[in-house]
Structures are given as structure tokens and as C-alpha cells.
């Protein structure tokens, strides 16, 4: 049993997401610690890619902020290496970054050897190796379908990491089988069609998806659109083993950042009076984390009581 | 679904069923002509689109380059570019699939206008995503889409250009995939798009091959086409790929330099075949302009239609196989090519096409051979404003005097 | 050289020898195919021009008007309008005649661009006269001419529009007549121009007649074309004139009113067939918009290409004979027609063409009959700016929301 | 012998042209009188047409000024009727005005009769009739070739007026015969290809044209580009029976007009000080007229001395 499976063992898991480096590396590490304090069971850390096709506007903006701040895969891993939190960490990123990592050296070598022909990415192994070194427990790669995941799955197995796949409301039949065969750690249940983003209601599709997944033992974490403790409660009550929350948390970071940048041009002291210091944002994140965790627990109690 | 190691389906899981459904529909309707799809497509291409387009001997350029030079006149297709071949095919396919709605992305606006035209013609509601910056730069094309009844949705994220519009369209599709078809505009994206778009565009080489045989006899020695995403390129090459005697030249935008500025994350060119490296973008493994981390860099070309950091996976494969030779033409040379074709043949080409024309000037006579087919992918009306600005700011020896236009087009 | 009492050769004596020389060349090369002129012309029309253009069934308009409606797609001709048929013919003829230089006049710029294209294609030096006011209103077309290597000579006399440009071109020709051919842009001017231009444009009806027979069988019940000078009109009608069963409708620009303001010397329309009177203008006797003294009044239309106070003498004759029925469509209705074709068929027409399309809305089902051919004389890209302005200033019920364009096209 | 033939009988004729109504009717009548005083043997009076295709920029501008001032055929004839000058008068205009004159009444009548069908011009007869009444001796109609001139020729014959045709440098052979058959009064020999306008030199083509016309007795008046006494002398020396001068005279009117309109916005008195009153312009016209007439006479003396 991996550390990720374990995180789901003692009741419903709260799985928050943040983009590392948003709005800057130091602040975002502070925010991760706040989520940890707020009760996170697993933390998904976004390594930003320039073309985040699966993300909604909220997370896309976080990605842009992080990239503008100079985030790179190397800095990402270096930062994670220093991070001391209780919750196991999952890296969420896009396949091109996984595929290219470590390729610059390989590429230079091959260019030397072949006189400048275009070289190939180093493949997923160096990325996984480095992730394992710094203490990452698994990956979510939203643009990597099961069909293309062979090499990454192998590397994960080699280094003992989990590879988490996303199951959409439209995923059924053979596709579902194929995905579930390759998934480990937990399965990411996409609550609705579309992209990431906070929504006010919980989709009907969630229940149907969970029903389809009933026969697999793997923990089922539901994401896409969960923003409140109440929603977390509903989702867990509907049978989820955990809730994944991203955009609602990123919104807090974004608001703090935009307030800070608005006042940056005026009196710096005002920014602190407004409570938009890193500490204040971290506090707010911790507060929402606690609410979400409480909601998940409440949902589990209701599910328990219904079962008994 | 692969071309060697290139291609594939690197998309969010939510889109996979739609892509499988599309693949199935592609096989049945396009490959097997179920319900007479292919017949209707061909008929509409002819009557609505204006096919076949001519294969015209360019007398003066033939003399200049001492070869028999032929122009495949896709600029005469309805809408003014080869783009309609694909847009009409996909919108018609969406109708056969029972989809109720079309979405598409557009950068310079050419694919958007082609899609809007096809959707109006076939009476399907249509929404086009376009970066806000592109909207401001390409107002005539935006207006054409609106005139054809399409909604144009401004994309304000990021820099507001093609990349962001693609992401936004993917998002729309991920949300509405059950009722909506996403009309991708080039031989890019996840399978089956690269194959399907190539097949819709193959009418270019199918006609050119037959026309050359009728008019000259046999096969040309070389075929030249500009390459951005690569849809006119694959369209022009496709039916010649198995003719080993025919050399295929893909002319990429060399921009202002072939080097990549890693600091700034900018490649001042769009030469993914010539300088790019393997990676995964917008659903497919292909050649990309990227930094060493795998972040996609900002590409550049004087021709906004070539300005894309990726390229069709099949083209990447054909280049690796040595079947297609990638070459580059920089911004200045492209502008010269633009003026040359305008003056010597009375055809004002798109700036994309101008790259293909410009390469003739730097090609060796061995490369060209005794007969050349150049794909005139589109007409230049859309580029007049850019050409005035860009020509005025450079030393283009063969440009007409621009003084009368110092105030721009209005 | 006459059509009834219409036509003739009312030109300064200095031009008469050139006109006689042209008449002789027209007979030999065009009518008798001397030196293979006609063969070369047809070949270039095909390969350079993109002929044949399609005859497309317009499904949605057919349904709307409960008739089989076909569009003759001259908008797909190189340059975007039927104008090239004539310009290519005349420039080629000038070459056969040994002329070293081409002059032409242009108003909206369509004939000028067609002539500049043909002259570039055939490598003949070319000068285009254009009123200064028109130059400022039609900058994209001016730029296209310059790109094709033509000189554009601004005419500053009078109001700086088409009338003055015609006079100025006549003056150039009167001075250089021995080495120069004047490419007149419509079925107007002294004999043999009305006949010759009609013959060059007749390819429209020649194709349409054959295509209709191939696609439907037999003859259409009616043919509809817009009429300014009348070159697309005569082109579309010519081969149907002797088919008595085919009704021919010439749609004129009704402008804002059919009345003439004698005080101001202005006719706020261009309906010379419908409201004009006989007189002599620009070399021919025909129907004109004139005041009671015989001074030519200023015409008007939202479509600058229809904005002319005269009309081809043959059309005037056919109207008097009852063979052609003149009808009018006002500015507002023309804009509605523009939007209707754009939205329902995915074809953005020229504002000239929009008049023909708009008339369908007011025609009776008896007038249209069971099958109609409408000549789509050109595409609307050139008119986008005008359409934005004109639509914004009126109540056009079917226009798209224009707010996004409140700042114009740039 | 008509009054026009007679005008050429006593030596070389000086034939000036002015557009009536340029820049206003009263001034232009004054100018005509000045030309008469200056020795004009025939005066060509322009009746302005809106599309003067045979004119150069100078005369076109005169036409525009005259039309802006409200000139009409009716006003033209009324004014000529009051004009008391020695030189016989020729009306120079375009065919549409000749053709339409008197047609408005005819048109209304025909519209009444036929219920609004488009009617035709009244034809040339009413125009010629009215011209004869007011004392016009002949016509020059530059856009009316001999082939189309039948009706106007007939009307002229009926009322005893001359119809003057233009012979161009390109007019030869049968065309020349046809034109000369229909011409009366004098023949207008176009000195060069092109349109009206003052030029600095005399064209070589003039001599050739005059040679071709040698076998006809009709007086040959050469026009197009003659602007000085010296040129007049050369042309007559080369065999012409007269010189036609238009643009050089119209230039004087235009300069006076533009000077007057420039000062109109300033101090009116200045305009008079500058000598740009109607009287001053008339004086200048008379002076140039005298120079041209003298030149023509000098040319005739030389031609005479060469012949003896």
C-alpha cells in the first residue's frame, strides 16, 4: 500500500491543489504548509505548463503567474525537496514537461554526436527519478490518456510512484477498464464535463460515475467544481473517498495577489493593513481547508449512518 | 493513429469518447462513403467551393527560374484560401454525425472565416474562439465571420492569440462534447484530426497530379508548399508521397532568425520542422518550438497564418523519413516573394504563400528540377495592411513606392 | 455598331482611327480567332482566371422563394469579380494589336484591379486613372493595383470620381492613341466597346446555360443580374437573349429615391434603365440620368460599382424592345440582401450583387418562375468597410450586431 | 459664302475661344468684347457640358466654373442674343446638349401622351433654330464624328449655319474625305494628338496635316496648343488660314478669377489694386489677342514672300 492509498484509509481524504510558484515560490510554499495545517490528506502540486488545455480560467491564470515568476521543473523539484509537510505530495502537470525533463543534456550530447539533428526528449524516466528523490508520491497528467501512458507507468513502477488517471463522466465500458488497470494511488473522478473551475452545485453525473467505479477498490477522489464544505459533504455522502479542490483555493491566492499588486503601486503598508500579506492569504487557505475537510468528514458520517 | 512515433491522442480523458466517435465517423463517412458523404462533399466542394482550382503555368516565373513552373491556385477557392476544403468537410461530417453545433479556433482568422462560411452554407450554429489581440489585428476577418452569422468569442487570457484560443476551444469542447464538433483548422491535434484534415485537403494534390499529367504529362520534379500547421502542405504533398521521383519541399517561416531566445521564451521564427524538437502539444506528439524544459515558446512570422509553434505530426514524420525536405524563408525574403508574384503574375498571394514563392529564389536548379508545382495556398487581400506596414519598415528592393500609403489603408 | 438607335461612336475625331483599328482587331482576333486569339483567351481565363465558375444551387434561398435558385459564382473569378473576363480579354487583344501600353479608368477600383492583374500577368505596362476622392475611399484597391505594378494616376479635377477619371483617361488616350489601348471597364463607350465587352463577358451566360442544362435540364425561367454600366448584366443575359422563354431582369440601384433633384443636379439613384432618358455620354447614345438641358446629373448608390449615370446601349435597346425588364432595389433593401446571402448561403456578396439578391425578396413568384439563375457578380470583401458604416446608420432588420465594430475596421 | 468663310477672306484669321459664363456671365461677355476689340475674326463661344471629354484641364476648369455659375443653353442663347460684336460667332459644345435642347417641353408632352415612358431628346433642330435666331453662325461639336452628324448637318443646312469638323493628325484617307464632304465654314485642324491646352512649341504634325488638306479650298484653322504670337506666326507660315486659340486665353481668365477669389476674403480694394477687376482681365485678353493676330499676319507675310 502506497502512502497515497494510506491517506484514504482513515476516512474521507481532502486533496487540495495549488500551482507551485503562484504568485511566487516562497509564498506558494507557505500556502502549501497552510493547507497541510488545514488538514490536507494529499496535496496536488501543479507544475505549470505553458499550454494548460485542461484547465479553466482560474487555474490557467495561476499557471501564467507561476511561469511569469520563473517557475521551471528544476526549481519545482528543488523546492519540493525542501518542503516539510505531513501530507503526501502529488505532482500535477502536462506530459511535455514530463517527457522533456533531463533532455537538455541528452539533447546536447546527441547534437554533438550527430552534428545537430533534432533530438528527442529524454522520456519520462529522468522526471520520475527526480520526483522520487524529492519525495513526490505520484502524478496526475491530464493530457496523458491511458493509451499513451505506457512509458510513464513503467517509470513509476520502477521508482515506486503512483500514476493517477482521471475518469470523466463520459468514460465507460472498455475505456474505463483500461484506465482502471493502469491507475494506482487513487482515481481522479471528474465531477462534470468541462474543465477545472469552482461551481456552486454538485453535478448529478458524480453519482453515476461513482456507481460505475463501485467494483474497483481503489480510492475515488472527486474533483472539478468543488468549492465549499457543503459540496464536499455531498460528494462524500454520495460515495466518494475524497474530494479534490483546486480552483476555490487558487481563487484565494489570486484575490490576495491582485489586492497586493493593486496596492503595490500605492502605499505598501496598506497592503498589509488590507491583510493581503502572504500570512493573511495562508490563513484564509487554512480556514477554507478546514471547512472542506469538515465537510468531507460530515459526508462520511452520513454515508456511514446510511449504511448502518 | 500514429506516424512513426508522432501523432497520438494526448487529450484530457473527457474528450476521448468524442475523439473515438469522430474516428468512427471518419472511417464510415469519409473512408467508406457511408450515406454518400463523399459524394455530397465533392459536389459541394465543386459548386460552393469552386473546385477544381486551376493548375496554372506561371510563364514569367518559369522563365526566371528556367523551369516549368506551375501554380496550384487554392487562392481561387471560395473564401480565398485552401482552408475551406477542410472546414466544409468537417462541418458536413458534423452534420452527418448529428452534432448540433460547431466550435473552432482561429488565429489570423482564415480558418474561422472558412468555418463560418461552411456553417452558414450548411445551416449549423457556429462559434469561433479568437484571441482578443488577434481580433483587433484581423478585424475584416472577424467581420466576415459575424456576417456569416457566427458568434466570435474573444479570448482574453494570456496574450490573447492563437494558443489561448486553441486552449479555450478545447475547454468549450470538453464541456459540450456530446452535442458539439470542434473543427480543427490544420493537420494538428489528436488523431483522427491530422489524418482527417489531410484527407480533406488531399484534393489539392489529387487535382494537381491529374492536371499536371493532362497538361504536361507525367509527374512534376518537385512540389513546393509553405508550412505552418501544415494543412496546405500535406494537401499539396499527400498524393505525391508515394511517387519517389517527386521532391517535396516544405517552406517554413524563418522569421527574423532561426535561433531561439531561451531567456525570453521566444523563437523569432515558426520553423518547427527545421529547428524544432520532439514533444507533445495540443493533443499530438510532433516537432515543436520549445525551451529545454518543454515549455512552448512564442513563435513569430510576418505571416500570422504560419505563426504556430507546432506542426502536423505526419509532416514531422515525413521529414524524419527524408521524404519531405524542410527549408526556411525569412520575413524579408517572404515580402520580396509577395511582391514578385504580384508583379510578375498578377496574383497577390497570402503572406503564407509568399514564403513558398520566395523559396524559389534561393532554391538550386537541382532542387527545382525541370518542373515545379507551387501551392498558392491563399490570396493576399487579408494581408494588405500587414504588407504596407512591414514593407514600409524594411528595405524590400522590389516593393512598389509606398509613400501614397504612409497613412495606412484608411 | 448600333443597337436600334443606341450605341454609335460619339468621340473626338482623334480617337476615330484607333476605334476603327480596334474594331478591325476585334473582328479578326475575337470573332475570327486569328492567330489563335480566342484559344489563348479561353486558356488564360481557365488557368489564370479560374473558369468555369460554378453554377451553385442555393438550397436555403430556393426554399425561401419556393423556386430552384442557382447562383452563377463570378465572385470566385480571380480578383473577386466578373471584371477579369473583360480586362483579360482586352489586355490580351492589346498585345495582339501590338500596343505597348494600357490605360484604364476606375471608380470603385474593381475594373482597375482587374486590369492591373491582367496587365501584370501579360507583362504590359499599365496606368490607371482614378479620382482622388475615390482613391481615398478605396485604398485597398489602390494598393492592389500598385502591388500588381500599375501606376495609379490621381484625377483631381471636378469631384474626383469616376466621371472625371473617364474624361482623364479619354484625354490620355487621345494623346497616346497610336501606342496605347484604353481598356474600358463596362459595356459602355463608343463602338466596338459595348459589343466587345459583352462578348468577353458572355462566357458567364455561355457557361450558365450549359451548366443549367447539365444540372437541371433545359433552360431556367429567369435570369437576374444587377446593372450599373451593365457588363455582368449583358454577360449573364447574352446567351439567353434569343431564348424567348427566359425572362431577363436587370436590377438597378434605386439608391435613396428614384426622383431626380434638378436643382442640385443629383439623382439619388443609378437607375438609368428605369428612369433615364436617351442621350449621348462617353461615346455612345444610351439611356442617361440627365437634367432637362442634357447635363449629366450626379448619380448615387450605396454600391459604388453601380454608381454611374449611364448604362450600356445594348441594355437600353433590350429594355426598349421589352426583352429585358428593368427593376430597382433601394439602398436599404440592398443591404438586407447583402446580409441575407451572407447568412443563408455563406457567400458574402459585393454590394452590387446584393441588389440582385435583394430583388428576389420583392419579386413575384410569376416573375421568378420555377427556376432562377442569379449572377453573383463579385465578392464583398471590398465592401466590408462600407457595409459596416452603412448598416450602422440604418435600420437593417437582419444585420448582425455591429457594436464590436463601432470603431470601424481598424 | 457664309460669314465664316468671309472671315478668312482678307488674310489669316485669328479665332479665339472662351467658355461663356466663365467665371460669370457678365464678365465673360466683357471678355468676348475684348477679344473682338483685339482683332478676332471669328469667336468660338463654349457652351459648357458636364462631361467635356475632349478638353484639357484648362478648359475643363473653365467649364466647371461656368456650370457652377449656373450657365445653361437657354442662358447661353439669351446672352448671345444681346451680344454686339463684329466677329461672327461659333458655338462650341457637346452633342448631348445639342440633342436635348427643346426636349424638356417635347418630353413632358410625350410623357403626358404615353403615360410616362422614357422620351427622347428633341434632336438637333430646335437647338440650331434657336442658335440661328440669336446670331450664331456655326458649330463645333468635338464628340460628334462625321458618321453621326447627319441630323445636325441637315438642320444647319436648313437654317444656313456652318458645321465645322475637326481633323486630327491621325485623320487620313477615306475618313478625311468623308469629313471634308460634310464640313463647312472652315475646317478645324488639330495641331497634335491629345486634348486642348497651351503648349510651348508647334507640332511637326501640323505641316503634314495641312499638306493633306491642301486640295480642299475650305479655310484651314489650326488649333490645340497655340499660345503666343510667335506660334501663330509659325502656324500661318506653315500654310494655315487661321489660328484657333483657347487655353492661353482661358488661362488669363482663370488667373484673374483665382486672384480675385483670393483677395475676396481679404480687402476688396486690394483686388482692384492688383488689377484683377473684370476690366483688367479684359485688357490682358485684348493684349494677347493683338499679339496673336499680329503673329498670324506676320506668318501670312512670310508665306506670301516665300510664294513669290
TrEMBL record, chains A, D:
Tetramer of two alpha and two beta chains. NCBIfam families: trpA (TIGR00262). Pathway: Amino-acid biosynthesis; L-tryptophan biosynthesis; L-tryptophan from chorismate: step 5/5. PANTHER family: TRYPTOPHAN SYNTHASE ALPHA CHAIN, CHLOROPLASTIC (PTHR43406:SF1), TRYPTOPHAN SYNTHASE, ALPHA CHAIN (PTHR43406). PROSITE patterns: TRP_SYNTHASE_ALPHA. InterPro entries: Aldolase_TIM, RibuloseP-bd_barrel, Trp_synthase_alpha_AS, Trp_synthase_suA. Pfam families: Trp_syntA. It comes from the Archaea. One of its GO terms (molecular function) is tryptophan synthase activity. This is Tryptophan synthase alpha chain. It comes from Halomarina rubra. Its EC number is 4.2.1.20. It is an enzyme of class 4 (lyase). The alpha subunit is responsible for the aldol cleavage of indoleglycerol phosphate to indole and glyceraldehyde 3-phosphate. The active site is at 44 (proton acceptor), 55 (proton acceptor).
